[in-house]
Amino acid sequence: MTDQLTVGMIGYGFMGQAHANAIARLPMFFPDAPEVVRHTLVGRNDAALTAAAEQLGFEETATDWRDVVGDVDVLYNLTPNHHHAEPSIAALNAGTAVLCEKPLAATHESAMSMARAAADADVPACCGFNYRFVPAIRYAKRLIDAGELGDIRQFRGQYLQDWLVDPEASWSWRLDADRAGSGALGDLGSHTIDLARFLVGERTGGIDRVSGNMRTFVGERPVASDDDSQDEQRPVTVDDAFTAHLGFANGAMGTIAASRVAAGHKNDHTIEIHGTAGSLRFALERLNELEVHTDDRRGYETILVTEEDDPYLDNWWPPGHVLGWEHTFVHESYEFLTGVSGETTPAVPSFADGAAVQRVLAGIERAAEQETWVDIDTSEPS
């Protein structure tokens, strides 16, 4: 086992804070986790970078990721989607383990190149689907794998946010197809597709066909400026919302949807799974709860997933003392870094998983363009 791991991190915004916080919490709550040094933070603006490094606890800074990827044990790649491939592949080629945020890349082709690099590397590579690490989701997987729901017949998922409801909301890189790849589809839908694969993929043979419908409701948005004038407008080249149908290899069916213009919804990710012997429902905004139905004589039972024998909960608080969104990143980094240290095989979504999700995203885009069902090649190597 490696005694100490040095971490380099590209990016220090929202995701940088989430992952740096997770790394800092590991020794407090997961004493068997490897010792981790937040070594180098990478960004472009020297002044902002220095302030961020102090805030997030990094020892050094760098303005070029090329100077870092071969000198640390682990790279956290938290850049915009179109920058995922090059630094991640370079790090893997240098023998540096990588955790890259989702979606794995802006395009299917880039995701495949990343998955091939990971397959050839001798170190782990993880795609950051943090919702796999919600204790209630882990509990749900236990039920499904134990056959408590019987044969899976239907999967439903939707992810709704409202930060783009206002047509005057500022333009960002997430609204540019060249940088983001897609909008609500990749940003939000990738989480739902990953949970479908994680929870029911093995029991359904995987997603092998899709349909799709994508819409952009606001065609251009103002560019924020320092003087608060928003005269400049830039085009929105990604979807504001999408819907899709999924076909699974065993005949099961799925419906998924996502929107960044759903008024009143802040971070509303819900899934439902129906089988021949039972059903379950999960809502991210009530992430400590799982609704379960396994008895024909009753409706759903709400289970509070906070007992110490529930997944990950023996490391946290007494029963009933709930966890939050940020804890998913702690669990994710624990599984990933413990695997990097050589102690276990990482129990995290791999780059192959990320590429498989990307195939479905690309399929939905093709289906929306062609207005028909398209097949997903589940045999394609990742």
In short:
With 382 residues, this protein is of the alpha/beta class. Helices cover 31% and strands 25% of the residues. Helix 2 links the parallel strand 2 (35-42) and strand 3 (60-62).
Q: How is this structure best described in words?
A:
The chain is of the alpha/beta class and 382 residues long. 31% of the residues lie in helices and 25% in strands. The chain has helices at 14-29, 46-56, 85-93, 108-120, 135-145, 177-180, 184-204, 327-340, 351-370, and strands at residues 4-10, 35-42, 60-62, 74-77, 97-101, 125-128, 152-160, 207-215, 220-222, 233-235, 241-248, 253-259, 268-275, 279-283, 289-293, 301-304, 374-375. The strands form three sheets. A nine-stranded mixed sheet has the order 16-15-14-13-7-12-11-8-17.
